[in-house]
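Got a spare moment? Tell me how you read both lines of this record:
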Amino acid sequence: MGEYDYMMALWSQFCPMRSEDEISEKLYRKLRDTLPKHQRKQLLRLMDSTNAHHETVSLESFIAGFQLAAGIARETTRSPYSFAEAEEARACKRE
């Protein structure tokens, strides 16, 4: 499983479908049922494009947040910088 697949799995676990998405889906079905066939195809293409864009933006936002959290975690687990220790290490290298 690649890193992207792993992030998609995490995203789907932490970002479940919201009730607004379900309402939007119901409205889409209602509209689709009232349109003639050629307009339904256009509506389907539009909805597919919109959904793909929405998922891409949502996943990219999740990945950015995850990377930010990982960076913060790395920063907080590192030992703080000590000038005295750095000077001592440099002095030991000179000897």
Observations:
- The two ends are 48 Å apart (CA to CA).
- The helical segments are 3-14, 19-34, 37-77, 83-94.
- Residues 42 and 48 are 10 Å apart (CA to CA).
- DSSP finds four helices and no strands in the chain.
